[in-house]
Design brief:
Helix content: 25-40%
Mean pLDDT: 88
Oligomer: single chain
Strand content: 25-35%
Strand order of the largest sheet: 1-2-4-5-6-3-9-12-11-10-8
Number of domains: 2
Radius of gyration: 23 Å
Order of helices and strands: HEHHEHHEEEEHHEEHEEEEEH
CATH architecture of the largest domain: Roll
CATH superfamily of the largest domain: Hotdog Thioesterase
Number of helices: 9
Shape: globular
Distance between the termini: 9 Å
Low-confidence stretches: 1-27
Structural class: alpha+beta
CATH topology of the largest domain: Thiol Ester Dehydrase, Chain A
C-alpha cells in the first residue's frame, strides 16, 4: 500500500548535525551500544546489579539541581536534541544474530527496544546542562503514540540509521519524533516513523520535574510543534470517548447488533422460534474467545533499565512477539507489522515481578488483524494483579483472514475498541 510520508521526511536534512558530546573534535556517530552507555553515564547507573542500591542513593543528592520553575531553564531548539545513530548490520555482521528472525529479516521487537533507548537519550540531550555531567532528571517513556511502517521487510544485512529529535514540549513532558532508514542501493530509504512521549521526573522517579522549553525556529518547525499539540489533543479526545467511560455511538451500536443477529441460530425446533441464547458461528469466522494467547515472563535483573526497573523496550518486545504469534496462529500465515499505536505505560514493572501477558485478536478486516496485548504484574506476596501496559498492534497477513466474532457484551466493546484503533491507523497510513 502507498504509505504517506510525513512532513518530517525533509527534516533531518535541515538538521544535519551529528551528536557531539560538548567537544570541538570531529563529530561522533553513535551506535546502539554507545547510546546505552551514554544513558548509564548521564544517570550514573551502575553496570553491576549488586551496586544498584548505592547508585540510586547517590542520585538522591541530585535533587538540589532540579529547576523550581520551567522559566528558570534555558530554551532549546529542535536541532539541539537531534541525534543520528547507526545500527551497522551490514558492516558489522557479528551483531546481526541478535537482530535476526527465522524468516531472515530483522526482529521488529529489537527495533522497539532501540527506539525506546534512543528516545530517552534524545530527551536527555534536550535537557542537558553544560556544567552538570549527571542529570537530576529521571526520564521515562510515558507512551508510544504511534509507529507507522512503510516497509514490510527490514533486511538483516544492510546498515540501519535512526534519526530523531524533540518535536514538542509541555511543562514536564516531551514528544520525540524518530525515523528509521535502511541503506539500499547506496542511499538510506525510509522504513518507519515513530512518535514517543517521555516524561521527566525527579532523581528518585517519584514526582514530575520541569524540562527546558522548546523554541521552533522556522515555519517547518512551527508546523511540527503544532502537530505535537494536535497529537496531545487527539489523545485526550480518544481517551475521553473511551468505551470504558462512554456508551458506543449509534453507528457502533448498530454494528454490534448486526453481529448479534448474524450469530443467532435460526434452526430451532418447534414453532420456528428464535432464542436470544442460541448462537452459532457464521461461516469463515472465529469466536473471539478462541483467538487469544497468553505468556508469562519472570523479570530478571538483566532486563533492567538505568533506574533499575524493567526496561520499557523489553516489555514492548515481549508484547510484540506474543502479538505476532497470535496473528500468525490466527491467520495461518506469516503476518507483517503495519503499525503500533497507543501504548500506555501505566505502572513501572519491578525486577522480580511475574509479568502476565495476554494477546487478543479484537478486530479483523480483509487481510488485517488488530491485536491488543494486556500486560499485568502479579505480586506473589499480596496475590494482587495490576495492569502495567496495554499494547495495540496492526498486522497484515499474506492471505485474507477469518472474521473475529464477539460473543459477550464485554467482547463487543473490545471489538469496537479494536475497530477504532484500526480506523485511526488506516487514516494515518
Amino acid at each position: 500500500s502507498a504509505f504517506r510520508l510525513s512532513i518530517m521526511r525533509k527534516f533531518p536534512s535541515v538538521l544535519v548535525r551529528t551528536f557531539t558530546p560538548g567537544t570541538t573534535g570531529s563529530p561522533e556517530l553513535l551506535d546502539m551500544a554507545s547510546v546505552r552507555d551514554k544513558l548509564r553515564d548521564v544517570v550514573g547507573a551502575s553496570t553491576n546489579w549488586s551496586d544498584h542500591v548505592q547508585a540510586m542513593q547517590e542520585r538522591r543528592a541530585l535533587h538540589t539541581l532540579l529547576a523550581k520553575r520551567q522559566e528558570d531553564l534555558p530554551p532549546r531548539r529542535m536541532k539541539d536534541s537531534y541525534l543520528e545513530v547507526v545500527l551497522p548490520l551490514g558492516s558489522q555482521p557479528e551483531i546481526r544474530e541478535k537482530y535476526l528472525n527465522v524468516h531472515n529479516s530483522v526482529r521488529f521487537g529489537r527495533i522497539l527496544e532501540d527506539l525506546d533507548s534512543l528516545g530517552v537519550l534524545i530527551c536527555y540531550t534536550h535537557t542537558k546542562q553544560e556544567m552538570q555531567p549527571k542529570s537530576p532528571l529521571s526520564i521515562v517513556t510515558a507512551l508510544v503514540d504511534k509507529i507507522n511502517l512503510c516497509k514490510k521487510i527490514i533486511y538483516p544485512d544492510s546498515d540501519i540509521k535512526f534519526t530523531g529529535n524533540v518535536s514538542w514540549v509541555g511543562k514536564t513532558s516531551m514528544e520525540v519524533t524518530m525515523h528509521m532508514l535502511q541503506l539500499q542501493d547506496g542511499e538510506y530509504s525510509p522504513v518507519l516513523d515513530a512518535t514517543f512521549v517521555m516524561v521527566a521526573r525527579d532523581p528518585e522517579n517519584k514526582r514530575p520535574a520541569f524540562v527546558n522549553p522548546l523554541v521552533p525556529e522556522t515555519p517547518e518547525e512551527e508546523a511540527i510543534f503544532k502537530q505535537g499539540e494536535l497529537n496531545k489533543l487527539r489523545r485526550i479526545d480518544f481517551n475521553t470517548a473511551s468505551l470504558l467511560k462512554m456508551a458506543p455511538t449509534a453507528e457502533e451500536r448498530n454494528i454490534v447488533h448486526d453481529i448479534f443477529l448474524n450469530t443467532l441460530d435460526t434452526r430451532q425446533e418447534g414453532e420456528g422460534t428464535v432464542s436470544f441464547r442460541s448462537r452459532k458461528l457464521p461461516p469463515n469466522s472465529v469466536w473471539m474467545e478462541d483467538a487469544k494467547l497468553k505468556g508469562l515472563q519472570i523479570c530478571h535483573p538483566q532486563e533492567r533499565n538505568i533506574f533499575n526497573r524493567i526496561f520499557g523496550g523489553f516489555l514492548m518486545r515481549k508484547a510484540f512477539e506474543l502479538g505476532w504469534a497470535t496473528a500468525c496462529s490466527y491467520g495461518g500465515s506469516r503476518p507483517f507489522i503495519v503499525s503500533v499505536d497507543d501504548i500506555m505505560f501505566q505502572k513501572p514493572v519491578e525486577i522480580g515481578s511475574l509479568l502476565l501477558l495476554s494477546a487478543q485478536v479484537c478486530y479483523t478486516e480483509k487481510n488485517y488483524i488488530q491485536i491488543r496485548v494486556h500486560s499485568e504484574v502479579y505480586d506473589a506476596n499480596t496475590r494482587e494483579h495490576h495492569t502495567t501496559n496495554i499494547f495495540h498492534f496492526t498486522f497484515i497477513s499474506e492471505n485474507e483472514v477469518p472474521r473475529v466474532v464477539p460473543n459477550t457484551y464485554g467482547e463487543s466493546m473490545l471489538y469496537l475498541d479494536g475497530k477504532r484503533h484500526f480506523t485511526a491507523v488506516m487514516k494515518e497510513i
